Amino acid sequence: MLPFRLYAAVLFVLSISLLFPPFCIGIRSFPTRAIDGGDAFELSSAAWARFSEAPDYRNGADCAVSMNKEMVSSCDPSLVHIAMTLDSEYLRGSVAAVHSVLKHASCPENVFFHFIAAEFDPASPRVLTQLVRSTFPSLNFKVYIFREDTVINLISSSIRQALENPLNYARNYLGDILGRCVDRVIYLDSDLLVVDDIHKLWNISLSGSRVIGAPEYCHANFTKYFTDGFWSDPVLSRVFSSRKPCYFNTGVMVMDLVRWRQGNYRKRIENWMELQRKRRIYDLGSLPPFLLVFAGNVEAIDHRWNQHGLGGDNVRGSCRSLHPGPVSLLHWSGKGKPWVRLESKNPCPLDHLWEPYDLYKPLRHYNAAKFQALSSISGSTLMGFSSYLS
User: Fold this and answer.
1) Is the pLDDT of residue 159 over 90?
2) Given the DSSP bridges, would you call strands 41-42 and 80-86 parallel, antiparallel or unpaired?
3) Which one of 80, 95, 114, 326 has the lowest number of neighbouring Cβ atoms within 10 Å?
4) Which of 10-14, 120-124, 159-163 has the highest average model confidence (pLDDT)?
């Protein structure tokens, strides 16, 4: 039996908690964890407000005029569609990537971003939505919730744990996630910068019946992306018998979503992932299924649109240099990320090219006004979807 005073105190605390519940936005409470390579801190709304507002980039006189300048629809045919994932771990990179696209676009107001957020990310999709809105007030975008159970049972272990993140597989489902009126999209990873006009990439033609376009690297050792068991199996290895496969990086792709949906390419990729669960045929994460389905039948885009590998290799994270030739897109694929290395005071030389696009602010510079804005979250740009699979 509790003493009367202690009993009264417990009742008081319970009543206060019922009348004034703790401030919490989103799907679940936020744990404490470290992000951006810094010390651990609480994932509160204040932490997610620590980004400067980007400059307001406007269209030039030669840009197509939107059908409705007051309320831009994702079905507007004048738009350039870009899909990216949005999560707490790569948030700093995502913001820098968006900033780079807008800064170099000839018609930034005609760019529409489709952000795919994980259902159980430490930062709820509503908080991420408000963060994007406060950092890019005039940006055209939607945030979609990706149900992790869509793909979790298809993911096999990889050589690096980060590659097992279910959100890495969201690109497989863009044909289902995005509205049917979106018939073409550019998929971009969160660890890159676009330093050229994104409209040039958007206007690339996909010839014949090709579904995706990407820079190809035909001098790479293609065999290393699959196990010896795959190549020794005459049935499995025959998949490449009628085409010349070349490596391509799935972090930068132009995708024809009409052909994607018609050919049920989501299911084709899933079939290979199901086989991988039964018998190991590759060691990397989401890349090999794309290679199995598309390698040898990709619209080859100029290498300038994916100077990849700047994050170093998947084991040592060593520094890399640029490939020869012009550069339109810098991609820190690999283990090392520029914001982590800059934060730890151990950057690679090319990480300094990323730094001018970084809008992240140290805690001491965080703007309290943005924290107040988060208390009035609007779900108008949050597009949720449940199970869309048959």
Assistant:
1) no
2) unpaired
3) 326
4) 120-124
Mean pLDDT on 48-56: 83
Q: What is the pLDDT of residues 185-223, one digit of tens each?
A: 999 999 999 999 999 999 999 999 999 999 999 988 888
210 CB-contact burial (10 Å; exposed 0-12 / middle 13-18 / buried 19+): middle
Closest CA to 27 of 170, 126, 165, 117: 126
pLDDT at 297 over 80: yes
Reported as a single tens digit per residue, the pLDDT across 4-35 is 444 454 444 344 333 333 322 222 222 223 33
Residue 87 Cα distances to 18, 126, 199, angstroms:
31, 12, 26
Mention every residue, 6+ apart, whose C-beta is less than 8 A from residue 275: 281
Q: 313 near 335, Cβ under 8 Å?
A: yes
Structure tokens at 75: 């079905």
- DSSP secondary structure, 250-284, as one string: TTEEEEEHHHHHHTTHHHHHHHHHHHHHHS---SS
Quick one: residue 367, left, alpha or beta (phi over 0 = left, psi -120 to 50 = alpha)? beta
Token pair for 312? 């170093």
By three-state DSSP, how is residue 143 classified? strand
Contact by Cβ (8 Å): 156, 279:
no
283 band by pLDDT with thresholds 50, 70 and 90:
confident
Task: Give dist(CA 128, CA 130) in Å, integer.
Answer: 5
Torsion on CA atoms 166, 164, 327, 61, rounded to nearest 10: 10
Rounded to whole angstroms, the Cα distance separating 341 from 3 reads 56
CA angle 321, 324, 327 (to 5 degrees): 85
